[in-house]
Fold this sequence. Notes:
The structure holds three protein chains of three kinds.
Chain A: H1 16-47, H2 68-72, H3 74-79, H4 81-107, E1 117-124, E2 127-132, H5 160-163, E3 166-169, E4 171-175, E5 180-186, E6 191-195, E7 200-204, E8 210-214, E9 220-226, E10 238-244, H6 246-258
Parallel strand pairs in A: 1-5, 4-10
Antiparallel strand pairs in A: 1-2, 2-3, 5-8, 6-7, 6-9, 9-10
Chain B: H1 3-6, H2 17-46, H3 53-56, H4 59-84, H5 88-118, H6 127-156, H7 168-195
Helix pairs in contact in B: 2-6, 2-7, 4-5, 4-7, 5-6, 6-7
Chain C: H1 3-8, H2 17-22, H3 27-57, H4 82-117, H5 126-145, H6 164-167, H7 171-198, H8 211-242, E1 254-255, E2 258-259, H9 268-302, H10 309-322, H11 338-364, H12 375-398, H13 400-406, H14 410-440, E3 442-443, H15 446-464, H16 467-472, H17 492-522, E4 524-525
Antiparallel strand pairs in C: 1-2, 3-4
Amino acid sequence: MNNYGWGLPIRASSFAGQIDFGILLIHAAMALIFVLWGVFFAYLLVRYRRRAGTPAQREEHHASSQGGFWANNAGELKSLMPDVLVMLFEIALIVFYAFPVWRSIKMSPPDPKDADVVVEVTAEQFAWDVRYPGPDGKFGRAKPELVHFSNPLGLDRTDPAAADDIFVANELHLPVGKKTLIRLRSKDVVHDFFVPEFRLKQDAVPGLEIPMWVVPTRIGHYELACAQLCGFGHSLMRGDVYVESPEDFQKWLASRAALKPAPPSASNNSGGF
Amino acid sequence: MNATTAAVPQTSSGISNAKLGVWLFLASEIMLFSTLFTTYIVLRLSATSWPWGWTALNVPLGTLNTAILITSSVTIVMAYARAYDRDVAGFRKWMALTLALSACFLVVKAFEYGHEFSLGIGPSTSVFYAVYFTMTGLHGLHIVGGIIVNSGLLYMSYRKDCWEDPLFLGRVEGAGLYWHFVDIVWIFLFPALYLL
Amino acid sequence: MSQSHADSHGHGHAQSFLRRYVFSVDHKVIGLQYLFASMFFLLSGFALMMLMRWQLAFPGQAIPFFGRLFPADLAPNGVMSGEFYNALGAMHGTIMIFLGIVPMGVAAFGNYVLPLQIGAPDMAFPRLNMASFWLFLPGGALMLGSFFLPGGAAQSGWTSYPPLSVINPGQTVWLLAMVLLITSSLLGSINFLVTTANLRAPGMSLMRMPVFVWGEVVASVLLLLAFPPLEGAAILQLMDRVAHTSFYMPKDLVILGSHYAGSGGGQPLLWQHLFWFLAHPEVYVLVLPPMGIVAEIIANNTRKPLHGYTTMVLSMLSIGVMSLIVWAHHMFISGMSPALSNFFLVTTMIISVPSVALMTCLVFSLKGASIRYSVPMLFALGFIPLFAIGGLTGLPLGLTVTDIYLHDTYYVIGHFHFVVVTGSVIALFGGVYHWFPKWFGRKMNDTLGQIHFWGSVICMVGIFLPMLPMGLAGASRRLYDPTAQMHNLIVQPLNVVSTMFTYGLALFQIPFLWNFFHSIFRGEKTVENPWQATTLEWACPSPPPHGNFEKTPRVYRDPYEYSAPGRKTDYWPQNEPA
């Protein structure tokens, strides 16, 4: 796949460009600051090296009785000008960039009614359990005591709302250009949902259901990786993200719905991943 | 100022080392117990159910313990006042009384714990009991620490040279500050756990 | 002043070896004990990292030579297991921070240099000082020794996020060791604060104290106020593990297919808040004392007063205050309320202002100087641009939006290693070269020092610079096998580069170690004040006798009176009468 390279991966979500803008802008500013200071620093190192007969020159310090605070500390205050510039840059960054973009990405997940697709992603050691609500649009009941390796979410198939739920492991299918609401959960420890191409990252915390949203903008095959240490198999905890045209997505959903769920098993309850 | 305090070495800040040290130690202790109180608040606010303290715990025994600790704070001040006047016998009497009261507190606490354990209740029963056992347990450890320090001071008061040592009074004062702190923690713990 | 306690711990001659060198109450001996212990722990933590770097560069290949030495459950056929990798990672972080850099910067240098710099005969509580070291050493031994205990070492990262840390093996010992270390550090910080408040020589007003003393004071305040919450949090985690409480365990956890038997009702995020409430101030504990060391070296080797002493002191103090309210910038995507992130974003950007001011003062101190390129000065000068990279790379991580992508990638690793290694560690090396004559009355070899400097700096940059593009490409941290995820494959060669430079860095420590230990016994003897410095630690013999100063010095002026007009010499010691 050529989604990745030596720089940032390709952009495949509506807000990826906004995030990249910040990353590139800040790196440009960082490079500028570093080069300017570096040149000044190198100049000082050469210009003021020790030379016979040239003693160090102390800065002028005025007696505190005259001139007032500003005049007395003019040298010191002048040297703080770069700091003031950095501060102004940061204020601008916060007010015009960080606040509004953060608000749109993390603080305003869509209402389930307004989302085109709703999907529940549950992390566990060391897999991603993905569930679509099925034709009825409702997520059915799940019980922790029903969890089995053939039923990782503990879906109660006797609940009519759960009977048509579509479950798939380590695969996330999304239609391109549609607003998707993802409900992120965890069964055991803290995991992290990370799709580099979407520039989307969010911890999955047991006991919490965290809503997040994405509008995929590019058809393709991407990677879903766990980005929070979750145990010995952490690096193996990955899944595939398929962004498809809305028609292909519907076709895929229909093909999954046609598969009858396995009957509830009465055998032992062990074996997680 | 009598001779005892005048002989304490001069410091840059004007406060004795022992006193400043104890105050800084108490600052860190405040942070420690604030952490536990924060935990209590966070867990209680997010809990789906949380018992009323008086239904789960023994309020009369808790009240008794509160009275015991407040009294012991008074007695340790009396011990310090006696030491300040170099009244050796008076110091020993009040310090011994303080120790007796601290022991009473632990005995009452042991009865409470014993009763709860006999009902099959332990720290793992619920988050409420986890908070209760952890906070009162840690506070109990602080009481034990105070008993060790106070008995050490009582023991030292039987040595002749102790009353010549200009630092002794400072140590008594430090122990008193610490004991007040342990007392105050209980005064927060009691209503938080038993009454609310 | 404070004669009674100077007398109370006796005089040197009659003391037994045990009393003098092992259970000593002399701040200088304790300082050296901390120095040797923390050097040992730094090397141990580095050795763990060399093993991990092999796995990262060549995943699945047997570790050459050493691989066979490990038991089969840790490294079957010499290939390290995922559990072993995670244990190495957790212990590398823990050892480097809590057993290496903080004890060296705060305790080793602080114990030896701080009382001397303020003209004190010893610390305020010598016995407490000894107790502090003898809590630290067993704590460290327990931490390092946990590899050999049943259950092995902790493997949940140095951050120990529950519920993973509650269910993983090895964590109980980690928590117990942490409680010992925290207690030790509390005793130490109380001691530093009381010593600085109470035992200053006459005339040593607060604004005449060297910058290093200020760094120690702020670090001590942070340790005093921020460590107890972690101690409390560790006690709760210990309860979760030992007494099966559910402080951090929510209801209905299903772990590897089985239902977790706990009452539930806990909050995993609570630990993260309590942990970072310590761990962010801890960054400044790691950085401020070394920055003080850099300031000392720069003032001494530029032969002029520091630019903006007042600015530096005020910056350090405001960093100290602010650092207590920035912790949750480590948690932007942790699942806490996203609205809260905005608050921590603002405080984080505010704290960058005094940090930049500190760096500005250090750079401007060079203006008009007569720079003496001694070995300590090389390290101090190396600190400035490299620490600046660490500071600048913090910007995209501290900004909420860009952190969404960069959080938990190699960019973070690169960032804080530039801060802590090319910042703190380099400054600590400089401090060793600078105060070595004070400790042992001898000098370290200059040529070996220069080899050590250039080799180390080049290797450090070689290790950490590749991590920045790796992070930008999306490579996550803490991956046992980075090649298991597709998006890491292209940048995988950078891992090999990092690893090679890691082994290079190890090689360049050999001249340092040889130089250090050889010079203790065979180094060139020096005079009392070889650097022609102005601060009080050079106003007593090297090494100082018991009680330090023959008679209590009197302080007449500011700490860095170099090149004062109208004087024959270019330095004017603080204690020299006009």
